[in-house]
């Protein structure tokens, strides 16, 4: 893909490269496993991001964790792993267990929330996280705080009014928001050609008076450079920016989808040749940073860790049925809440 990375302001140290590679392996193994657990009847629903790992890990490494605000979407398994969420925690959500840190088993799996890490929860409604991102960035700007907000979404989300309103508002107020579109070419079964008349999502940036940049989302280093540039622009007061990472999902949309109905197998096989993990492994091995033996050992370790995490999470206590409606209805003293008490 002849798409250039923007900027060269973020050197990646050898240790960091290996960590990024490991995070991608963990996310892939975990995601494959979550699908298998669904097929085995052990998990009701799975939604994952096999194929999106490079751009997601790149995004996590471009922000300042715990300082910048992050509004991910359901596909961002690798982003959460790279931010430090443990596979066990993600699996507790998959099994809707009481200790699920994202929502106590109340949301669908992979609907992230992590207050300490400033990862903001969201609904399943596509693009609903974008107005929240613009609002958070507006607050940061009004308060004079050195914070950037990164919000991710698919290209299907860019057909929603929320996308246009949020980017426009952020552009008018020059807000520090990185709008990150993970363009995998499909919104469930709907191909992007049926959704937009422009070639690249990033082309739309012009219409709002901001910079748009397209990058190969399956090239970890290119994606990291571009995202670091985007976060840097926001920090320098030159935001917002719209970054489009071209990628592909190798799994069906969710465990409830059969992608054979709308995606030719040749297309999937063609993209498999550009698997972001294989590409980064080749790169690391070419640089002498990873031997085939080390790689094999690392993969075995990751497999074992995920198997252990599955066993632990599956055995964790279920939610108490009596708690089902908790946080749905107000439970305190309503007179006091109105300030009348
Ligand atoms: C407003 C709204 N419309 C429809 C849906 C059903 N839906 C869930 S995911 C999805 C596709 C989103 O595609 P995209 O934004 O490209 O993200 P991807 O899943 O491809 O990563 C749709 C239509 C929804 N959740 N919200
Ligand atoms: Mg999509």
Can you walk me through this structure?
The protein is 41% helix and 9% strand. The longest helix is centred in the N-terminal third of the chain and has 26 residues, at 14-39. The model has no long low-confidence stretch (mean pLDDT 94). The chain has a single domain, classed as Rossmann fold, CATH 3.40.50.970. The termini are far apart. Helix 7 (220-235) links the parallel strand 6 and strand 7. Helix 1 (14-39) packs antiparallel against helix 9 (276-286), helix 1 crosses helix 10 and helix 5 (129-142) packs parallel to helix 6. With 341 residues, it is of the alpha/beta class. It binds thiamine diphosphate (TPP) and magnesium ion.
Short characterization:
The protein has 341 residues and is an alpha/beta fold.
Descriptive tags:
11 helices, binds magnesium ion, 41% helix, alpha/beta, 341 residues, binds thiamine diphosphate, five-stranded parallel beta sheet, Rossmann fold
Q: Give the distance, in angstroms, between the N- and C-terminal Cα atoms.
A: 64 Å
Strand fraction band? Answer: 5-15%
**What portion of residues is helical?**
40-55%
Low-confidence stretches are: none
Q: Mean pLDDT, rounded to whole units? A: 94
- Strand order of the biggest β-sheet: 1-2-3-7-6
CATH superfamily: Thiamin diphosphate (ThDP)-binding fold, Pyr/PP domains
Report the biggest beta sheet as strand number plus sense, adding barrel if it closes: 5 strands, parallel
